[in-house]
Amino acid sequence: MNGKSKNLLVTPDQVSNSSIPIAYDESVTHDNARKKKYNSYTCFISENLDLEVLLRTNPPAIPKFHIDKLVYMAGLLIEIPLRKKDVIMDYVPINSALVQRRVRDYRKYLDYLIDCGVVEEDRQYISGAKSRGFRYAKEYVTATRVCTLNENRALLKSLSQFKEINYSFHSGNFESATLKSSFEANKRDLTHVSKWLNHKLTIDYDPALEFLIQLREEERLDPKIENCDQRFQLRQAALLKFHKGVFLPNEDSTAGRLHSALTQIKGVLRPFIRYDGKRLIAVDIVNSQPYLAITLLNPIRYGTNNIFNLIININPKNNFLLYPIMLVKTIEAASIAHNTKLYIDLVTSGNFYEEFGLMLKKEGIIDEKLDDKETRNKAKNATFSALFNSNNAISFCKEMNIFKRTFPEVYAVFKMVKLGKGHHNTLAILLQSLEALLILHKACKILSDENPNVPILTLHDSIITTEGNEEYVYTVMKNVLTEAIGVPPVLKIERWE
Predict the structure, then answer these.
(1) pTM summary value
(2) Beta partners for 492?
(3) pLDDT of 38-69, one tens digit each?
(4) Which residue, 44, 287, 409, 453, is the most exposed by fewest CB within 10 angstroms?
C-alpha cells in the first residue's frame, strides 16, 4: 500500500489491493512469539477463509472498518475453545461486555461474517448465564492457518492490557494484566519454568498432522462421537500454534496454574515433541487430586500448608467467626476415622480409581463388562463428581452417595470446604492452587536452582524433562510432595514415545 495504507475505512477499490495489511504463516516465529510488547498478535482462522476475496466480493459497510478487527473476531472462534481443551463446543459463547473492551463494534464484524455465510449464530441467550454462541459454517470447519495482526495499534494495545479475559464466561468481570495491575503484581516469578518454552521445543509437524487426520477418519466412523471436524480443527490449531512456537505461557488468575501451547496440545501428539532434539519424559502424580486432598484430612498438614488462607482467598464469604472452628473440628474427626485411613491407603497405593471402580460396579453404577481402562475412566469421573459437584447434587448423584457411604468423614470435610451457594468449585480451585504451589513454585524451583541446565516443563501435575534426567526429577518431586502432604505420592514415569 501507499503511505496512507493505514486507512481504516475499506472501500471496494481498497480491498482489491493485494497488500491488505495482514501477514500469514511466514511472519510467525519463535522470536516473534516471545516479544514482551505486543508489536503483533497471532490468530488462527480457517485455512480456506480467503479474506481478500471475501472483502472484494462483499465490501463491508462498517464505519472505520479494519481488517485486523475482522481477523481477530474470526480468530476468537478458535482461540476460546482452545483454552478449554477438554470441552468440545458446538457454538462458541462470546461475552459481549468483554469483547467490547477490544473491539467496540465487534457485533458489526460478527454480523458481516454471518451475512457472508462464514459464521453461524445460536441466538439463544440467557442474561447472566449464557452468552450468544457462534461457530464456523460447515464449509469453514477445516484445518487452520496463521494470521498475524500488526497494523491496528489500538487493538494491539488492548490485547496487551487485557490478557486474562475469559471471553466465554458470563460474568462481566475481567482482570487487567498491565504492569500496574494488582493481578500482575501478585504473580510469582515463573521464568525458571517458562524460559524452557523456546525455539528448542519442537514438534514434528507433518507426521503429527497426519496422525490427527487419521484420528478424524476413525472418529467419523464412531456414531458416539460428535463434531468430528470441529475436533480436528481445534486439535490442528493447537498443533500449528505449537509448531510455530507461539507458546504464550501464562499463570491463570484462578488457581495459579501455568498454561501454554504445551498444555493445549492433544496428549496423543506428545511422542512427536522434542527438546533440543531429545526425547521427553514426564513424571506424573498418580491419582493427583485425591492425593492432594489428603492434606485436608490431617490437622497438622492443614496448618502447615496454610489451607484456611487458600480457602478464604477463593471464597471470602466463608470468613465468618464459626467457619474455621467448624472446619478444624471436621478435619480432626476425619483424621482419626477408619474410613479416612482406607481412603489414604487406596490413594497411596496408586489404585484409588481402580478400587473405587470396583465399588461402583458392585453397586450397579457402571457396567461390570467394562474393561480395566474404561472402568478407571468411569471411576475417575465419578470421583470428580463426588469431590467437585455442589453439595446439593448428592440428592441425585449416585456416585456422590456411594463416596459418602464409603468415606463418610472424608466426604464431610469436602462438603465443608464447598460450603456456600455457588461456591462448590472451592475444593477444585484449592487443590489446583496447592498443586501449582508444590509443583511450579517448590519442586521446579529446587530443580532450577540445583541444576539450572536441566530442562523442565510442566503439565499441571506433571514435570517433563529430557531423557536421562527423569530419576532426578522423580526424587525432587517425591521429597517435596511427601513433606507437604505427609505421605509419599505414587509417581509414574511416562516416556513420550
Answers:
(1) 0.84
(2) 284
(3) 588 899 999 999 999 999 999 999 999 999 99
(4) 453
